[in-house]
Design brief:
Elements: H1 3-17, H2 23-34, E1 42-46, H3 52-57, E2 63-68, H4 71-79, E3 89-93, E4 106-112, H5 121-131, E5 132-143, H6 152-165, H7 177-186, E6 189-196, E7 203-210
Parallel strand pairs: 1-2, 1-4, 2-3, 4-5
Antiparallel strand pairs: 5-7, 6-7
Bound molecules: S-adenosylmethionine.
S-adenosylmethionine is lined by residues 4, 8, 46-49, 53, 68-70, 73, 95-96, 112-114, 117-118.
Length: 211
């Protein structure tokens, strides 16, 4: 198992118990995402964590396959299916880019709170592109810590490596919004909507169409 997967396994139970940090920003993210989803859509979510968002969006689509590198996260997510609700959702343990799921050709791929945690962001975006049909949508939200305020940014830059050394934080990439959007464009997408939910530090919501 990779260090990355074992970190997320270790924190999965605590992550499942922790409340959504900003309810208003989360509600806005869900609403803007639903605005792009259609009842006929086959959707893939990557880095789905404990499946909360997948289950909330399931009613808006035909099917939703949600994946995560952490077996523990997927275990918690799968347990939520026990009552038979959301029969169109399935969960699978998988690392980004490791596989083409169910033949690819998804109408949309979702990645919330994920891209800043990946060393090879460009590779991750490229693998998302491979999973999409032409014209398919990549809907993501990514915290851009390079644009945190003048007090928070140096604090994060100091604390995260120290916490990581002690196994208390994952790999975190300090992204700029412009850098992220350029990268998505370079990998073959046209950006159709952006927003910051929340604004500080900016969690960049991006809807991009495969061209
Ligand atoms: C901050 S959590 C976000 C979970 C969920 N998307 C949310 O918004 O609550 C990041 C998730 O990404 C997963 N993850 C990290 N690196 C990954 C990778 N390389 N491939 C797939 N999943 C990954 C972690 O296991 C974790 O569940």
């Amino acid at each position: 198992m990779t260090d990355n997967a074992s970190f997320w396994d270790k924190v999965a139970t605590r992550y499942a118990r922790s409340p959504v940090r900003n309810e208003a920003a989360y509600a806005e993210t869900l609403a803007r995402t639903r605005a792009y989803l259609k009842p006929s859509d086959r959707v893939l979510e990557i880095g789905c964590g404990t499946g909360t968002t997948a289950l909330k969006l399931a009613g808006s689509v035909e099917s939703l396959l949600a994946t995560d590198v952490s077996g523990k996260m997927i275990g918690i997510a799968t347990a939520k299916l026990a009552d038979g609700a959301a029969g169109n959702v399935s969960f699978r343990q998988a690392e980004i880019g490791a596989d083409t799921f169910d033949g690819g050709s998804f109408d949309a791929v979702l990645a919330f709170n994920l891209l800043h945690l990946i060393g090879d962001t460009a590779g991750a975006v490229r693998s998302v592109r491979d999973q999409l049909k032409p014209g398919g949508l990549f809907i993501s939200k990514t915290v851009c810590l390079s644009e945190a305020g003048p007090l928070l940014r140096p604090l994060f830059r100091l604390l995260i490596p120290v916490m990581r050394f002690f196994g208390k934080a994952p790999f975190v990439r300090f992204l700029k919004i412009s850098e992220l959007e350029t990268l998505i464009g370079v990998e073959g997408f046209e950006i159709v909507e952006t927003g910051n939910y929340p604004a500080k530090p900016p969690s960049r919501f991006i809807v991009a169409r495969k061209v």
